[in-house]
Amino acid sequence: MAKPLVFPVLAQFVSATAGRNMTRTAYVAVTLGVAMMTVLTIGPAYDAVAHWVDAVLWLCLAYFVFEWLVRLRHMRQRGRFWFYQLSGAGLVDAAGALAVPLALLAGVQPKTAWLLAILWVLKVVPGIPGLRQLRRVLVQESGPLISVLVIFLMVVFLASVAEYFLEHDVQPQTFGSVPAALWWAVVTLTTTGYGDVVPITPLGRIVAAMVMISGLGVFGLWTGILATGFAAETRRDNFLKTWETVSNVPFFANLGPAAIADVTQMLRTVDLPPRTTIIRKGTSGDCMYFVAAGEVAVDLPGRKVLLGEGHFFGEMALLGNTMRGADVITTKVARLLVLDLVDFRLLMARHPELAETIDAEARRRQLENQ
Amino acid sequence: MAKPLVFPVLAQFVSATAGRNMTRTAYVAVTLGVAMMTVLTIGPAYDAVAHWVDAVLWLCLAYFVFEWLVRLRHMRQRGRFWFYQLSGAGLVDAAGALAVPLALLAGVQPKTAWLLAILWVLKVVPGIPGLRQLRRVLVQESGPLISVLVIFLMVVFLASVAEYFLEHDVQPQTFGSVPAALWWAVVTLTTTGYGDVVPITPLGRIVAAMVMISGLGVFGLWTGILATGFAAETRRDNFLKTWETVSNVPFFANLGPAAIADVTQMLRTVDLPPRTTIIRKGTSGDCMYFVAAGEVAVDLPGRKVLLGEGHFFGEMALLGNTMRGADVITTKVARLLVLDLVDFRLLMARHPELAETIDAEARRRQLENQ
Amino acid sequence: MAKPLVFPVLAQFVSATAGRNMTRTAYVAVTLGVAMMTVLTIGPAYDAVAHWVDAVLWLCLAYFVFEWLVRLRHMRQRGRFWFYQLSGAGLVDAAGALAVPLALLAGVQPKTAWLLAILWVLKVVPGIPGLRQLRRVLVQESGPLISVLVIFLMVVFLASVAEYFLEHDVQPQTFGSVPAALWWAVVTLTTTGYGDVVPITPLGRIVAAMVMISGLGVFGLWTGILATGFAAETRRDNFLKTWETVSNVPFFANLGPAAIADVTQMLRTVDLPPRTTIIRKGTSGDCMYFVAAGEVAVDLPGRKVLLGEGHFFGEMALLGNTMRGADVITTKVARLLVLDLVDFRLLMARHPELAETIDAEARRRQLENQ
Amino acid sequence: MAKPLVFPVLAQFVSATAGRNMTRTAYVAVTLGVAMMTVLTIGPAYDAVAHWVDAVLWLCLAYFVFEWLVRLRHMRQRGRFWFYQLSGAGLVDAAGALAVPLALLAGVQPKTAWLLAILWVLKVVPGIPGLRQLRRVLVQESGPLISVLVIFLMVVFLASVAEYFLEHDVQPQTFGSVPAALWWAVVTLTTTGYGDVVPITPLGRIVAAMVMISGLGVFGLWTGILATGFAAETRRDNFLKTWETVSNVPFFANLGPAAIADVTQMLRTVDLPPRTTIIRKGTSGDCMYFVAAGEVAVDLPGRKVLLGEGHFFGEMALLGNTMRGADVITTKVARLLVLDLVDFRLLMARHPELAETIDAEARRRQLENQ
Hints:
4 copies of one chain form a homotetramer.
Chain A: H1 3-19, H2 24-40, H3 43-48, H4 50-77, H5 81-86, H6 88-105, H7 110-113, H8 131-140, H9 142-167, H10 178-189, H11 202-246, H12 250-253, H13 257-264, E1 267-272, E2 277-279, E3 287-293, E4 296-300, E5 303-307, E6 312-313, E7 327-330, E8 334-340, H14 341-350, H15 352-369
Antiparallel strand pairs in A: 1-8, 2-7, 3-6, 3-8, 4-5, 4-7
Helix pairs in contact in A: 1-4, 2-4, 4-6, 8-11, 9-10, 9-11, 11-13, 14-15
């Protein structure tokens, strides 16, 4: 029997799926499941490979049910059962596990019931990298965004009634009621313009032209608001991420809070996987790096120098020699702070003591490497 | 008889509708009225429920007439009769009350006359949250926006004459006159592209391609202008709102104007209704709050601490402990000033005396709660 | 005979048209001319009023020829004949005056020749308010804008060849050659989407989907570049306009250049025609004004106070009393500097001596008005 | 025989093509090649001039093969053979040289094989001016951009399944499968709107309206992100370019690093070809220039003054006299630093010693020219 073998695999699954939001298996299952659901709707393609498609769909469903049960158990053990159940992730997990079976039980046609497999794509949401940032922008700017939406809807309503009045005698088929005219107004104001419903009277066309130009305006306002919000959010995010790291680098530790705030605004945080080449010998560069966490290896002729937390490299680029002299590769997962040439010079001007430290170290290394 | 009952209700209505821009009843009436007007235009749907639709429409109209009369009386009592009558709100109220009855009296078909009920949506305008802000942006940037509009119109005219010249022999039906070509040009330059009028000669298509690319340019300019104006307006608005509040918080009162200007640029104002959870125990946070007005309750184990005007909370998050230790809920309508972690650190650098006060209070509270 | 009457009118015209770019008459002539040219192309409408249309067109043409000759004479008198002739304005004037007559002389059909009247709209260009600003943005950002245009064209070419390859067997009518596919690509990449040429093979549709998404990207880049350029240009423009004015206001004259630069960044310049109400009694306000040029009248009870160059008003709004106490109206064309509440407070913090002057003057006025 | 003549020409070609990315010949070859490839696909046009088209295509191909071989030899000589081969430029060169011949050898129809000539346009990529800048923006903002793309794809999938469910019974032809609905969703969400597939059920249209409005949102987010990134990149780029130049101008050399950083943020670098008129006598100007490299000639009455590295001109415009007093023309390729009036005044305020130097020099020149 397979059970003795299946169990340890399951146990591993349990620990893997319980903690993290999305395992690699889950990504595969979502992709496969949605792909098969798509095939299901293509008549001839499905008929050719019906058994395989059904098998994959059931497998994916089984996986998601299993994942959901594991998470429920895990959360109950930590006393966060209801917290999880009512959270966004919990609801998505439940919907992914239950929607299709419930539809099938309710007697819905299988081909239709399996369409609910599309809910599985919602599981990807928490894994989207910049989502939190986007949501903050939308929340911060919700006031003006809603204003624009209300204006959008008002223009849609006013335009569609005007257009209905002007066109419904000439085109009773397409402008026969206000809802039909509303459809036209949304299609036009978003500048989609299908062309299935088009005004033909001169006055109707003048109203339509004004609606299209308003469409550009709505677009512009919308974008302007989001651009403003995004710029503010980006500044905030960078600062937060970098402050944490800077205060952990010994090099900056003896600076006062004013100077740290200054330095923080100049550095950018970068996280790199192991065995990533940061600097390639012979290329030109315009930034230096501080190791905030992890370790990097400098490939000097004949030997390898390991640099750990608090060390820096690439400073030659800022002191006149823009051609990189050696390969630098991460040996572990590393968090680096990047200082651009631009900011190095501003920093040099405001905190000469820092610049001297870098300068001295650079000269020491140059001597050593000769 | 119902009169004795109706009168106090009316009296309450009078006071409610006279002062504020939009009562909840008015929103309901607008929504219902526009919905019924829409139903009116759908032949079969209307025939099924004609009586109900008519009744609701007349009711809404009666409400708006009543509201208008109440406001007129209210304004006359305060000697602002003509000021109100000629203001935007007064004109909209008058139009909403009179347009449909006048059209019916003038002998317009009822189905057509009721279309004027769409004017009721204009009553929503003053209630749009960020409208004042949007209008300021449009006014401030009106110069460049009008320039772009003039350029837009010039491109439209030049393109349509060119296209008429190139296409009217081949497609006399669609490009038979310059106005027809103007329709094409607007549809194309706004990138709507219905497809009802499409150039088919090679030269005509080259002109059209240039018009489309210009369309992108017009779009970009428009958006760029609005984005710039919006960024400036947002900065201004935040500053104004916050300055008022900051100077009312005792905590900041003994700072000089330079420091207040500094602090003001870092704080954000938030208005919250009663019984809103500001901080949820166990979540992580990166900001602290000052109570500018109203009151909040901190849910400590065993007791509830009420914090009124001038107090602050959530400061632990800024001092290393990002996990929130207690629920905080508003007890009344409260205006809070939010200080982000980012700005707290900049503030700490520039005004160490403020940071020390926060630090001392935080330590006092920690001792107290042990 | 009419000559003795016509001559002084002409003489006045000469002086009016020679100096300025566009007289009011010229605007009327452009509008009428283009409108009549439009009517000319509408068969039935033209037939009904052919004589009138022709008369107006010839009149407009006569005006533009006359205007051109007057300007030529004017410029020759100042020795700038060739400078004018080869400038944009000179070329447009020449084209407006000569294009239609030359076409008629060359034997072109009158209906076609008069289409060249569209060139008259180009005369409007120098009168567009923010044009110089827009041109500066386009010049400053020309590098990245051209890059995006080149990328746009490359995507168009690559996509159209791919689409031609994939579709020309299935749709020989619409995708029969690369130029036909190019038409499709431009229509799609600008998201216009006429729908006259649509890929139908699965692979063709995938390529098309990628083109559409690239279209969004191109759009976004374009807008981002223009928004950035526009923000920089707006800052620069405001500064320049205000600096000139600030240094002419005695109130600021005794400040050092550092303080003037500071003040300049806070003020906004506004030019107003005579008899414009700047402040309306009883409204609320959040800014004060300096008179940089011209004069304003303050409508106090019983008397009118005139404020000339260097004076300020509306300062009560910044000192706690936001309700305006009197109407203020311009008596001549006036240039005002606007100081927002936001900036007044920052100014107060940085230059307390200025704030004191304003404060003292405000208190003096308050006493006077009691 | 032609060989003795051909060889020196080839030798010159070799040196020209090996070093630079794109010679003028290469641009001509790309343009001609792609144009001829386009003609090839137009049946009647090709038949008329088939021999010429073929000849040009083969010639272009020959040129690209030759260019590739020359570069390979050149790179092998410098030991960078594999570096080049695996770089983007190397791959593009190889594809341009080999794609068409290999396709022909593989027995593909000539008309189809020559379509691969479109790959030649990729050679233009490294020559695009602002490309490096655009790439940096895309890399820096890749996080949020990918988020928006993922959200875009999720909306596309959810909408297309919903639309398939709602429409496939009514319109089996166009909404017959999820892939068909996906096509509709992409066409709609990008606001392209061909109109070949349009929902007709009421619910389907409501879903479609929401998709269109989401399209505006996606657009806005995308643009907002790119605008933010672009603004940051522009600042950085200007600073870097200018710093290098400023430190080479003797005039600024004796400033400390803080002042240089200050000055750098105010100057703009401009590179000009020889014989370019920088200042035209009699026009008005609002900036002054420093010569960072090269030389310019000032056309004074009776004599020509040459100004080399480190000199400045146009300073009168900043000292009150905005009318330019003389033509200034570059004599060699020149790199100029432009100082706007705006920034000159800020600079004057912060570094009075610099302003005095400019002032003194200006007065000296004025005396000299009298």
